[in-house]
Amino acid sequence: MEGMTSTAVSVPMPSIPRKRRSPEEIAAAAEVEGPRRVLLAAPRGYCAGVDRAVIAVEKALEHYGPPVYVRKQIVHNLHVVGTLEEKGAIFVEETDEVPEGALVIFSAHGVSPAVVKSADDRGLRTIDATCPLVTKVHREAVRFARDGNEILLVGHEGHEEVEGTYGEAPDHTTIVNNPAEARTVQVRDPDKLIWLSQTTLSVDETMEIVSILRERFPKLQDPPSDDICYATSNRQAAIKKISPQADLVIVVGSANSSNSVRLMEVALEYGAKASYRVDFANEVDESWFEGVSTIGLTSGASVPEVLVREVLALLAEYGYADVEEVVTAEEDILFSLPKELRATLKEKGDVSRGLGGRGSRPNR
């Protein structure tokens, strides 16, 4: 009507399940040379730091009761976050969203001192579920800055882990995102320079960046031990071995999982003809199987094994029932639960799960 303004209303379309093409249709679409098989990467899935963080939230819910607040995603996986939400976890972006006096858990990616102070100022009870390997990098940053060194932090700006590490020594740290930035970054004193890295990067790209930096700054110091975590390195090594034989590589992992995205990129760099990342089996497009004989399958370090098993079940429906596990390393790393939680578990007499990592429980 005249004189009235109209407001556009967006109405979402209902979700309609996609009908999959049958295995027979896919087989007819393109000839497959050789037997169909799956090369299943090992190690894959949960690392010790992820397992520890997930247990921490589960145990906090069990002993303190819901709601338990978690700053950011406890780990970068949609399934894990959704499962914990169903149990009573509430995920927030910042501590100012948490009611005063409530319990908040810091994610496996770590936080800066400013975040810890913010939680303390609000009287929040905290459990620090930062992966011990990330904590190691934090301590290195503090120590090197205290000694007057400038830090070149190799990592992806905006990633939670990088934000936390940078926050330990912001006046001494410069983030280097990629080889292009390594060629142009400026430093104050090239004689007092050290590099650190995000723990979930591509090993090859990190070494390329460091090589460029060292060429420009010959006195660049290495960290005392490798910052890229064992799980990231091991999962990349496994997919490197599989990729030259694979017509297709499927990586199970979430889009915001740095190590999962790197696995997809590494697969292509090492010879896979195609590589895709999915959160769930229902995201796998059966047209990817056309003309495909060998499929490589792996998962990021924050992915429970149940999601891989669901992909394997789908692959079996399309004729890929022959599964060969390609083992490149054995993992037996275990981490104790956060100290704040250990005290409660001891008081309650709970000895069911005090460690995170392979060997502590099945990789779910």
From TrEMBL:
Residues the record lists as binding dimethylallyl diphosphate = H76, H109, H159, S257, S258, N259, S302
Pathway the protein acts in: Isoprenoid biosynthesis; isopentenyl diphosphate biosynthesis via DXP pathway; isopentenyl diphosphate from 1-deoxy-D-xylulose 5-phosphate: step 6/6; Isoprenoid biosynthesis; dimethylallyl diphosphate biosynthesis; dimethylallyl diphosphate from (2E)-4-hydroxy-3-methylbutenyl diphosphate: step 1/1
Residues annotated as binding (2E)-4-hydroxy-3-methylbut-2-enyl diphosphate are H76, H109, H159, T199, S257, S258, N259, S302
Keywords, A to Z, come to: 4Fe-4S, Iron, Iron-sulfur, Isoprene biosynthesis, Metal-binding, Oxidoreductase
Q: What is its EC number?
A: 1.17.7.4
> What's the protein called, per UniProt?
4-hydroxy-3-methylbut-2-enyl diphosphate reductase
Query: Record keywords: 4Fe-4S included?
Result: yes
Which residues take part in binding isopentenyl diphosphate? Answer: H76, H109, H159, S257, S258, N259, S302
- Positions binding [4Fe-4S] cluster in this chain are C47, C131, C229
Q: What does this protein do?
A: Catalyzes the conversion of 1-hydroxy-2-methyl-2-(E)-butenyl 4-diphosphate (HMBPP) into a mixture of isopentenyl diphosphate (IPP) and dimethylallyl diphosphate (DMAPP). Acts in the terminal step of the DOXP/MEP pathway for isoprenoid precursor biosynthesis.
Top EC group: oxidoreductase
The cofactor remark states:
Binds 1 [4Fe-4S] cluster per subunit.
**Entry cofactors:** [4Fe-4S] cluster
Q: Where is the active site?
A: E161
Which family is this sequence assigned to? Answer: Belongs to the IspH family.
